Amino acid sequence: MKIGFKGENFGEKLLLATRMLPEIAIMPFFSTIVGNAYLTAQRLKIFSLLEKNSMSVKDVAEKTEADEHGMRVLLEALTGFGYLERQSGKFQCSREFRKSLDGKMSEMARGMMIFAPDVAKKFENLDKAVKTGEVENFHFTPITPSSWSHYLTFLKSVSKEPTKALVKKVKFDTPPRKMLDIAGGPAQYSIAFCRKYHNLEATILDLPESSAEGETEIKKAELDGRITYITGNFFETDWGGDYDFALLSNMLHCLTVTQCQTVIKRTFESLIPGGLIVTNDVDFPGEDEEIEMFAGWSSLLYFMMTGSRTHPTPAIKKWMSDAGFTKIKKTKIRNSAQLIGIK
Q1: What pLDDT, on the 0 to 100 scale, is given for residue 13?
Q2: Bridge-partner residues for 330, per DSSP?
Q3: What's the confidence (pLDDT) of residue 10?
Q4: Which among 33, 48, 107, 302 could bridge 253 via Cys, Cβ 3.0 to 4.6 Å?
Q5: Residue 136 to residue 143: CA distance in whole angstroms
Q6: What is the dihedral of CA 59, 65, 67, 71, to 10 degrees?
Q7: The model's pTM
């Protein structure tokens, strides 16, 4: 997948088709303006105001405590970008935008909308981060007082379909009985595996903010007693042991290389002989292989949010092998790679 323009009329389509429009060079200029307009609208709750209602510029300006002239320019721009539509001098969310907020993937769209301003705030320091290599991990230094709530909403919204696919992908010779879910967030993975395997009990290692949200989800799923949390920094806490299945899903990209190696080694030690490890993360290529858009995008995102990156899949496989895991195989779910090994 590549990011690009889509012509709206014959002239624009002709310019793109003949490559007379230097698309890759001018895309950042346009995307900066579109992105900032979108983020401003989200911060001012303009989309919430106009999702169900049609309002005049004056009304929107009053509701958001904004200047009427500035609001007019912003609303008109958002209309040109396709987020809003205008009729009889009033604005509302466009039909296409409303479809994305009400359709099959609506929860994911809304989760991304909520978390986007927090991500944008972190990216204000990209220059400094690239120069110094120093980034505050937002898990321990929240971006705003609301960022943990936004983040957990985002996590739950984007994980539903991938979680279902992961549960189908992982196969066991015998049904697992004891699962270790490392950095398991608001329990979505543990809940899904416990629903499939009725004798399975899961332990989730994560921070207190995630566990508070996850315990609510566990109660909703009526899985109290089968899923428990060990809260705290998992480099310092006791993990327990005797697990026959350990899951490390979308968490290695939050850790440095040394930390990843430590976690994988501790995972090996916590499993019974024959126990299974499953890592799941964005598939990033090894040296000199083509880097696809999503892989590059995700790595930069994780760098700015945690100071780490999307680690190359071949490197993760080597860390698993060095820790003692054998028969390591790779599977794929869309842009993500799963590495499955045996102790």
Answers
A1: 58
A2: 339
A3: 55
A4: 302
A5: 9
A6: -60
A7: 0.87
Residue in 319, 311, 318 with CA at minimum distance from that of residue 337: 311
Amino acid at the residue 47: F
Strands 90-93, 84-87: pairing is: antiparallel
248: β partners:
279
Cβ contact 82:96 at 8 Å:
yes
Q: What is the pLDDT of residue 297?
A: 93
Q: What pLDDT sits at residue 14?
A: 52
Cβ-based neighbour number of residue 145 at 10 Å: 7
d(CA 124, CA 25): 21
Q: Among residues 287, 308, 288, 286, which one has the least CA distance to residue 298?
A: 308
Regions in the chain scoring below 50 on pLDDT: none
Domains of the chain: 10-102 (1.10.10.10), 160-291+307-342 (3.40.50.150)
Asked if 212 and 148 touch (Cβ cutoff 8 Å), the reply is no
pLDDT score at 324: 98
Give dist(CA 293, CA 190) in Å, integer: 30
**Length of the chain, in residues:** 343
Residue closest to 61 by CA, chosen among 297, 125, 50: 50
Q: What is the pLDDT of residues 135-149, one digit of tens each?
A: 999 999 989 889 999
